[in-house]
Amino acid sequence: MKPIFDSTLHEILNKRLSDLEKHFNADFLFYYGPITDSLDKPFRDLIEELKAEKDTKKTLFIMLNTPGGSAETVERLVKITRHHYETVNFIVPDAAYSAGTIFCLSGDNIYMDYSSSLGPIDPQVYNGKNWVPALGYLDKVEELIKKSIGGSISQAELIMLREQDLAMLRRYEQARDLTIALLKEWLVKYKFKNWDTRSSTGKSVTEREKENRATEIARDLGDNKIWHSHGRSIGIGALNGLKLKIEDYSNDSVLTKLIRDYNDLICQYIFRNKGEIFFHTRNFI
């Protein structure tokens, strides 16, 4: 009975994905799961399958549900998408945190509704056992160093500071610096490419102004003093406050139904099968 049920469900999901492709006149890829080091090869293969078809489009939409992962992997995924597509847009029906946020910020447009979330761009680094948020470690070490300089550090804190692995701390610093560099490059090159005039004044926007805005966004999204938590949900209101333009489909009843009918069903399917990583295109499920 289960194979028949799954086959029917696959047909429904393929139909709903096709409806989204027709609505946007674009190729479509769904991804659910962490952004791990091994992700780029299956991602590349699926993109190449889409581009091998005669009716492939110039625009790719990626619907993303992820807790985050590796910024280095995101860089490789962006190279793949930009090799094949002129325009890459993201839809975040639920949440794309950490490296998922970094991935979204490589897009030309980001589609969210009032319940969607991005997260602080705190890159995660594998410490040999687990993926850990880099900025949390760096902030704590900086706090202990300041206490040491000020003469207020406790003996227990001093021991903690001495036990830090300098090689790992350097990896955390490199992950942070890579994230900021990637965001500055991608925001200017893709998200801001059509930002020619200021809406408030009508004045032309210079390349330097685009770079400054990208730097501000990268700085604020990576500031733990603002968000306090690696898993903090950042919605449309906060993103608009950072002057990051989001395509809000909250009041678009047609698009909301298309996205939720597809995303809610495929997520239920993933949960039922206890999947950790899941791809869907018109060629693969």
List keywords for this structure.
about 280 residues; alpha/beta; six-stranded mixed β-sheet; two-stranded parallel sheet; 11 helices
Count of helical regions: 11
Strand content: 5-15%
Radius of gyration: 21 Å
How many angstroms separate the termini? 19 Å
Biggest beta sheet attributes: 6 strands, mixed
Overall average residue pLDDT: 89
Strands side by side in the biggest sheet: 9-5-3-2-1-10
Write the layout of secondary structure elements.
Layout: H1 2-24, E1 27-32, H2 40-51, E2 59-65, H3 71-84, E3 87-92, E4 95-96, H4 99-104, E5 109-112, E6 117-118, E7 124-126, E8 131-133, H5 134-150, H6 155-162, H7 166-191, H8 207-221, H9 224-227, H10 236-241, E9 247-248, H11 253-272, E10 278-280
Parallel strand pairs: 1-2, 2-3, 3-5, 4-6, 5-9
Antiparallel strand pairs: 1-10, 7-8
Helix pairs in contact: 1-11, 2-3, 5-7, 7-8
Describe the protein's architecture and organization.
The structure is a single chain. The protein has 285 residues and is an alpha/beta fold. It has eleven helices and ten strands. The protein has helices at residues 2-24, 40-51, 71-84, 99-104, 134-150, 155-162, 166-191, 207-221, 224-227, 236-241, 253-272; strands at 27-32, 59-65, 87-92, 95-96, 109-112, 117-118, 124-126, 131-133, 247-248, 278-280. The strands form three sheets. A six-stranded mixed sheet has the order 9-5-3-2-1-10, with helices on both faces. A hairpin with a 4-residue loop joins strand 7 and strand 8. Helix 5 (134-150) packs across helix 7. The protein starts with a helix and ends in a 5-residue tail after the last strand. The mean pLDDT is 89.
